[in-house]
Design a protein that fits this description.
The protein is of the alpha/beta class and about 375 residues long. Helices cover about 35% and strands about 20% of the residues. It has 11 helices and 13 strands. The strands form 2 sheets. A 7-stranded mixed β-sheet has the order 8-7-9-10-11-12-13, sandwiched between helices. It has a 6-stranded parallel β-sheet with strand order 1-3-2-4-5-6, sandwiched between helices. Helix 3 packs parallel to helix 4 and helix 8 packs across helix 9. The radius of gyration is 20 Å and the shape is globular. The protein starts with 7 loop residues before the first strand and ends with a strand. The model has no long low-confidence stretch (mean pLDDT about 90).
Length: about 375
């Protein structure tokens, strides 16, 4: 099968054969290409391309070579993503969806997709997705955030925490979980804010956080918004006395924030580009072989699209129609390629470890598995 790695834009589909007679298996790759989350796009597209190469050197998906259809899934996109996806499904122009975007977009799409095509949702999220036909494979707060909070509380013993995030379901649900954990650890909540997307001047909020007396802060801001916050935080000198934790700040965010603004910043995730594992070593070799040494940086957000493509292939390989039955398949029951998951254990399940890393300049140093 051919390479066909570069995603096709929606307008390019035109009058080409649709699903019934299509030569390729078309996967709509839903990635934010603009706005606050647009920072993640290059890594996401590049990682998905590695999966396409691997799949197309085998049997593809459903016996057809895989073709990516690029769809802008940003909230700020000129055409709402649910309108684009609905038209593509109605026209028979796509066979499946792999989406790396915020949960607010997933909630809108869940009302549109309606089990007409399988929908693999790849990033970390707030948990609880049970819509039939949607398969959420990312980390959830109980596995990711909880252990990180416990570790940092034990190490630094902050008396009070601040919570800051964008105003939508993932930060609010994650922070509700965090507040319960803080109460269990006898830590106080000193500050809580939810901000609109695209806020570039974080100065007032950083000043209010500083005045609150918080000794640690959980950051649940998306992409460029997290960058703006970390820059303002560093410029205010708060990194000398306040510990930062995020579950979404990744390697692109470090580069954009600048090393001088990243002291005492920690991140919890199931994948980091610097992860010294056999699975990551194999993934990195394939990634840089395809894209060269100047490729977009590897990170958890990007790796998720690589994993999502292989999850889709594994799902359909088991039963081409079975994905419509019931809710989502529990990922540990499905064997598929990943740069983060461990192989089957003696109990016959796949494990997804969570790691804590510290910003070391503009790179992450993995501290430990948590």
């Amino acid at each position: 099968m051919g390479e066909a790695l570069f995603p096709t834009e929606v307008p390019e589909i035109g009058d080409r054969p649709l699903r019934g007679a299509a030569r390729t298996y078309r996967v709509a790759l839903l990635i934010p290409l603009c706005g606050s989350a647009g920072l993640w796009a290059p890594s996401c597209i590049s990682s998905a391309q590695v999966a396409v190469r691997e799949l197309n050197r085998g049997d593809g998906i459903a016996g057809r070579p895989v073709e990516l259809i690029m769809v802008d899934a940003a909230l700020e996109a000129p055409t709402p993503v649910e309108a684009v996806v609905h038209e593509l499904i109605e026209a028979g122009a796509i066979d499946a969806i792999v989406g790396m975007h915020i949960s607010a977009v997933r909630q809108r799409l869940s009302k549109v997709v309606g089990q007409r095509v399988p929908y693999i949702y790849t990033p970390l999220y707030e948990g609880g997705e049970q819509t039939a036909g949607i398969f959420a494979i990312g980390e959830t707060p109980d596995a990711q955030l909880g252990p990180a909070l416990h570790y940092l509380q034990a190490q630094f013993r902050p008396r009070s925490w601040a919570l800051i995030g964008n105003d939508y379901v993932w930060p609010r649900t994650s922070h509700a979980y965090a507040k319960a954990k803080l109460r269990d650890m006898s830590a106080n909540l000193a500050f809580e804010r939810y901000l609109p997307f695209g806020l570039r001047d974080m100065g007032r909020h950083v000043d209010e956080l500083a005045a609150s007396g918080a000794e640690a802060v959980l950051i649940s801001l998306v992409g460029q918004d997290a960058v703006a916050f970390n820059r303002a935080f560093g410029m205010a000198g708060l990194d000398n006395r306040i510990v930062r934790l995020s579950c979404a700040v990744e390697e692109n965010g470090l580069l954009a924030s600048g090393g001088e603004n990243l002291k005492r910043l920690f991140s919890a995730a199931s994948y980091f580009g610097a992860l010294p594992t056999e699975a990551n070593g194999a993934f990195k070799e394939k990634y840089y072989s395809l894209h060269g040494e100047h490729a977009p940086v590897l990170n958890a957000i990007g790796q998720s699209t690589y994993e999502g493509m292989h999850f889709l292939a594994g799902l359909l390989g088991r039963d081409d129609a079975g994905w419509r039955e019931g809710g989502q398949v529990i990922p540990c029951t499905l064997d598929y390629r990943s740069a983060r998951r461990e192989r089957a254990t003696d109990e016959g399940v796949m494990r997804t470890p969570i790691y804590l890393a510290r910003a070391d300049g503009i790179q992450f140093s993995v501290i430990k598995r948590i």
